[in-house]
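Subject: complex prediction, re-run

Hi both,

The earlier run crashed halfway through, so I resubmitted it with identical inputs.
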Amino acid sequence: MNTNSYFLKEADFDSFVEGLMKTAAVYAPVAKKNWFVFAPISSPKEVRLDHDLTILPPKKVIFPVRQDLVAFTPEGATSSIKPEPRILFGVHFYDLKAIDMLDLLFRENNVDWNYLAQRENTTIVGSNIQKVSRRAFWASVGKGVKPHAHDAFLTKLPTGYVFEVVTPKGEKLLACGQFKAATEAQVSEARRINEEILNNCPEKLSHSSAEIADKVRAAFKSKLWDELSLTCFSCGTCNIVCPTCYCFDVQDNWNLDQVSGQRGRAWDGCLLEDFAKVSLGAGACENFREHRGQRYRHRLMRKAAYLNEKLGGPACVGCGRCSSQCVPDIADPVRIIETIMEN
Amino acid sequence: MSPQTQSASATYSNVFVPRPAEIVRAHQVTEMEKHFTLKMKDGQPMVFEPGQMLEVSVFGFGEIPIGYASSPTRTQTFDIVVRKVGRVSGAITALERGQTLYVRGPLGHGFPMDKLRGQDILIVAGGIGLCPTRSLILYILDRRSEFKKFTLFFGVKTPKEQLFLEDLAEWRKSAAVEYYETVDRADESWKGNVGVITTLFKKVAVNPNTRVIVCGPPVMYKFVIAELDSIGVSRSHIYLDLERRMKCGIGKCGHCQMNDKYVCLDGPVFCFKDIEKLEEAFR
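This time it finished cleanly. Structure:
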């Protein structure tokens, strides 16, 4: 008997989610046209734990697309940090790994409470992958890196869910539903399901993270970057949909009174042409990554090499969002890495 | 929302909240550059190392990274020089004495003072590269006995782009610094050296054991480094003050990355030895 594992009958699922909604805003995967998105829900019926992949990663619940940092008036500036209790529900393990990375990166060096305050006020419930997205490669990337971001984890069985409690925050959620202790058979069935899904990825990296990091870094001056990025639009989609990308721009916006306003940040992307551009004056400028091949290379270096030491593995979790949403289909890390490894 | 969470919002420190600084002196130095002397409104001294920087802002316009242009040995006020090139710098340079700027800093890593003390020093400054290096120049002049031979090279495109004219006049006469200057293109008023900054290396014998600080436009570094290599200056004795798009100043936003380094966090001053293999460090 696993004392941290509980069982929730299928029939009790909706009342559990309703219970969660009474304690905090619940963000879960819901259907949107022929895709899925993480969104605040108003009914348990909206929740789609059978989603294969969401358009944007769940980082947006903690690190919003646009966020006020500071409010200003002629008298001065005040902090805009105002976290609200949220439950982030139904997160696949690869997205949990990405949240772990953001937690580390926003905490290191200069602690950024604009991220961490909402993170602390977010309870995360992971869920098993029921359907595999068509470009996923999460089974073969950063295999040694296990997720820690979740407070509890749901695994779907034919008659209900095994609910594994991981943290005290996760334990509190037990009060929201009709849980029973899970049987040993249910726990081992959940484990089997979560292990077996790893055999179902359509894409696969054929080398270890360390081998990839070395070879990719050594290929910095390769002509491949220019060749592979020939059809790149510099649109930044690969950045925006990435669960581990966290670059942002800082901009001021006036209120209508033209004396007060907000200094805020918004997601930015290193593939965009002016990302590293500075003005030198008199109309002159310097773009430190002027060519799309340089920007294209920078993204993959960040994912496969630069951050590995810090993160204990690559800054890529194999979700396949960039692969499936890049219009010219040149962003797939598996194809880029395999090409480099073969050269 | 629980009451506990609501009250917690006030307890989270926010690295993006800037502090007000009063402009106690504003001086238009050239057509494009304005020199400000600032005093923190909270009365606290600004404690920094030469070479560090700060984010300077005008509300409604935004923030830009600027190096300190004064020495930390002068504690009551500090200086910045802003070149008018865009929206934010335009808003800053429109301000005058008595008005308020908002600042966040000090940020980043400055010149390694412990490695410079007791050594021969050469500073090579191009254009507004003189602004952040002025912090170190004034520091050395204020504590002259802590350093050995002190040489300064300053180059600009044309004579009217020279900054800190009072300082330059003093340094030309001073025995405390061996000062050499040049312009790329002379006008009728100019009597001095004409040529790019590397032509100044012909004017003086640089001891190979000198510690060298280089700050200027991106194109300048590789030519200066080639000169230093030919003299035999160790790459671990060369320090470069680099410019990038430092948007957040705290090593998060990503704009100033060169390879795996954040210029705002790991720099803006780097030992050349540490970055010579970074492909993105040099043009």
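The CA atoms of residues 89 and 125 of chain A lie 5 Å apart.

- K.
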